[in-house]
Each structure stands twice: as C-alpha cells, then as structure tokens.
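Section 5.1 Outputs to date
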Amino acid sequence: MNCPILNLFAKCSCSGVVICRFCVQLTIVVIAIAFGGLVAWKPKKVIETQIALYRPFNWKIEPISMEKEIRNTRIMGLVVLVLGILSLACILLI
C-alpha cells in the first residue's frame, strides 16, 4: 500500500509561479472540512456570527425557532464535513 503523504508530493506539480490543479483542489477540500467541522461543532456561534454580519447592512435576521435552526445548521455542517472527507478520499485515490 502506498503512503498517502508521499502520494501527495508525487501528484503535486507546482512550480515557482504556477499552482497546480491538485493543490487547488486539496486546498478547497481542506477549507470545506474545516468549515463543516466548525459549523457542526458550534452551530449557535455560527448563527450568531451570521446575524452580526448582516446587522451593519440594516438587515434583521431572526429564526422563528432557534432549536430547529441549530439542528438544521448542525446537519448542514455534518453534510459539508462528510462531503469534504469523501472529496479528499477521491482526490488522494484517483
């Protein structure tokens, strides 16, 4: 079985100026995994941050049911996390 870390370096073809497609895909997948984990782990904090970001634009965002919003946000984070992990597996295996 091949080591995935060594496989990463074999697939990378970055030069000094141009970033290869593999590294761009890997970066996007890592960001998706981090974002999905954050949303699944702290959904209430993410919702509060979204409300705070919209406040300067004079938009008032308020969920009808905070419990449902937290549950749905956690599910969304888990879906993004799972899709990120599956994407990482596809990138490393193909």
